[in-house]
Amino acid sequence: FSAKEKEKLSILNFAPKSTINSELLNFGRLLNLKVSSVSSLDNLVKYIEEHKQKTKIIIDVSIEKSELSGYLEYLEKITLNKKYLNLLAIPASTNKNMIKSMMNVYKNSFPTIALTKLDEAQISAEELSIFAELECKIGILSGSRSIIGSLAFAKNEVLAQYMKDIT
Q1: Beta strands across the sheet bearing 9-14
Q2: Strand-pair category, 9-14 with 34-38
Q3: Which of 29-38, 60-69, 118-127, 145-154 has the lowest mean pLDDT?
Q4: How far is CA 116 from CA 46, 133, 136, in A?
Q5: Over 80-121, what HEC string results?
Q6: CA 113, CA 58: separation in Å to the nearest integer?
Q7: pLDDT at 99
Q8: pLDDT confidence of 148, banded at 50, 70, 90?
């Protein structure tokens, strides 16, 4: 990042007050980006409204907060605007029933899937078929749990190479 680009990107952690330290926040600090944390939906909405014109915001949502009343409705509303992207991280070891369940919850927020932990577990054709049947967009492949680890954008060539490598 150049100095000007750093001012245009901020990272926000949306988690309970007891979980104010996330890996994404640590990554942002490492890159000397603006990092913040909120614990209520009202504060999240306020932060987004105050900063959406000035910066790009990456929001790390704790699994505890995804169950929060009103959060899914807000996510569905803002992702109708193509300027917002819902990136849903799903570990490669997730079974087909869990994938169906997660996609049922998030289907109206049009998630792009980030397949994670591909170095720890292999995803089978059955699970990839479920993603295809549900018309999911797979956008990122990650070789480890950490965002700092290997990361590949899921283009057809990358997916084909990955499938070739696991056979």
Answers
A1: 34-38, 9-14, 56-61
A2: parallel
A3: 145-154
A4: 30, 20, 15
A5: CCCCCCCEEEEECCCCHHHHHHHHHHHHHHCCEEEEECCCCC
A6: 15
A7: 93
A8: very low
Q: Assign 150 to helix, strand or coil.
A: coil
Distance in angstroms (rounded) separating the CA atoms of residues 41 and 46: 9
What does the alpha-carbon distance between residue 131 and residue 143 come to, in Å, rounded to a whole number? 19
- Cβ neighbourhood burial of 35 (10 Å; 0-12, 13-18, 19+): buried
**Tokens encoding 129:** 């078929």
The Cα angle at residue 56 between residues 55 and 57, in degrees rounded to 5: 110
**Nearest residue to 133 (alpha-carbon basis) of 100, 102, 167:** 100
